[in-house]
Amino acid sequence: MTTAQELDDRYGRTRRRRLPWIVGGAAALLVVGIFGWMIVDQSMNSVDADDLGFDLVDEHTVDVRFQITGVAGKDVVCIIEALDEEFGVVGWKVMEIPAGESHAQALSASVPTVSEATTGLVNTCWVA
């Protein structure tokens, strides 16, 4: 009678080694966990800025109205720009916004320009 060991030897079968699979699975779970935390951390510190409108005060000033959402209790910095009819930047301003308790804040900024602007907008915002 042939034993299981003799059949394994005859046909070249070896015993499965589970340790490499366990280590590989643990490493994969660790990598997925790290990437998941990075995504959560990034979304917790993201700021969304929406343009609400602008007013051309005179040929050297634009008032920009905008709203920021996404953070409460953290300082935010925004870049506000004034553009001409060819979308060239004719003025910009860095606006530091102190921490607020609300999830959303409506704000306005007056941007000085070097020539007449045709629009004003928020370029970007980030958590300071």
Could you explain the architecture of this structure?
- It contains two helices and six strands; from the N terminus they run ααββββββ.
- The chain has 128 residues and is of the alpha+beta class.
- The mean pLDDT is 89.
The total beta strand count reads 6
Distance between the termini: 78 Å
Please outline the major beta sheet. Answer: 3 strands, antiparallel
CATH class of the largest domain: Mainly Beta
How much of the residues is beta strand, in percent?
35-45%
Helical residue percent?
Answer: 25-40%
- Based on CA atoms alone, the radius of gyration comes out at 29 Å
Count of domains: 2
The average pLDDT score comes to 89
Instruction: Tell me the strand order in the biggest sheet.
Output: 1-2-5
H/I helix tally = 2
Shape-level CATH architecture of the largest domain: Sandwich
H-E string:
HHEEEEEE
The secondary structure category is: alpha+beta
Report low-confidence residues grouped into runs of 5 or more.
none
The dominant shape is rod-shaped
Entry keywords:
128 residues; alpha+beta; Immunoglobulin-like; 2 domains; 3-stranded antiparallel β-sheet; 6 strands; 43% strand; rod-shaped
Short description:
The chain has two helices and six strands, in the order H-H-E-E-E-E-E-E.
